[in-house]
Specification:
10 helices; 3-stranded mixed beta sheet; 281 residues; 5-stranded parallel beta sheet; Aldehyde Dehydrogenase, Chain A, domain 1; single chain; alpha/beta; 13 strands
Length: 281
């Protein structure tokens, strides 16, 4: 008689969740603390950024500021347009991340449109927002906008992608560099947007994306002495008051833009500089 062979028991399937990374200084990095939190119904892990991660992001942004703000306005427009191209190239992936369906498709389309719209404004800012001032003397007197510097951005919870892009694009258009806290409850679209940035022409450190608890990270970002402005797009009134108190230490600019396309969305994160020049010199 031949021996009966028994079928070995099937090994249990391992629950291995994908873990995303922060986007800081042009690199995808794990959070310094190693902490994560579950999103997308517990199917994946998002990094829970720490104080050290925010500080690293601000340092990277400050290092990148001179190079980005020193580029020609036309070149900045080309780079922002390239971001739009790379986002559009990954349209299907972002639609899936946002839940699929017509609403998700519209959100991705509108995010691409926002980037294209602000890309077109880059080389028109000085002509439209600047001016020649009449003065009583043999001088030319010009006023024109300049970038503020490092901008902290608290992105709206939803729409997760469009909310981030509509506040990020005008800051980039004006020559600023960014440290953004992406949507806390829906961080994946913001974190994957970092992949679109990494495959475009955006220099390292110009945009830095951090996920995690806004209640934990907001005070760190608002109180950082090397952050020049804060866009409190996603903050409630009590959080705005907290930011205002922390920003008093270094007279940090605070804006609360509504995310609509406008010239004011760009200039609200810029400084107006006036220059005198003798006539004939």
């Amino acid at each position: 008689m031949s021996a009966v062979r028994s079928t070995p028991p099937k090994a249990p399937e391992l629950d291995i969740r994908k873990t995303y990374k922060l986007y800081i200084d042009g690199k995808f990095v794990r959070t310094e603390s190693g902490r994560t939190y579950q999103v997308a119904g517990g199917r994946v892990n998002a990094p829970r950024g720490s104080r050290k991660d925010v500080r690293n992001a601000v340092a990277a942004a400050r290092k990148a500021f001179d190079g980005w703000s020193g580029r020609t306005a036309y070149n900045r427009g080309q780079v922002i347009y390239r971001i739009a191209e790379m986002l559009d190239a990954r349209r299907g992936e972002f639609v899936s991340l946002l839940g699929k369906g017509p609403a998700a498709e519209r959100e991705v389309d509108q995010a691409v449109d926002s980037l294209v719209w602000y890309a077109g404004w880059c080389d028109k800012l000085h002509a439209v927002a600047g001016t020649v001032n009449p003065v009583a003397g043999p001088y030319f007197n010009f006023t024109f906008p300049e970038p503020t510097g490092v901008v902290g951005l608290i992105a709206p919870e939803e729409p997760a992608l469009l909310g981030l892009v509509r506040h990020l694009a005008p800051a980039l258009c004006g020559g600023n560099v960014i440290v953004a806290l992406v949507s806390e409850s829906q961080p994946l679209a913001g974190l994957v947007f970092g992949e679109a940035l990494a495959t475009s022409d955006v220099p390292a450190g110009v945009v830095n994306l951090v996920s995690g608890s806004h209640s934990e990270l907001l005070a760190i970002l608002a109180g950082h002495m090397d952050v020049n402005a804060i866009d409190v797009a996603a903050c409630n009134d009590s959080e705005v008051k907290q930011v205002q108190l922390l920003a008093e230490a270094n007279v940090k600019r605070i804006v609360r833009s509504d995310g609509t396309h406008s010239l004011e969305a760009i200039t609200s994160l810029m400084e107006m500089k006036t220059v005198w020049h003798p006539i004939g010199h």
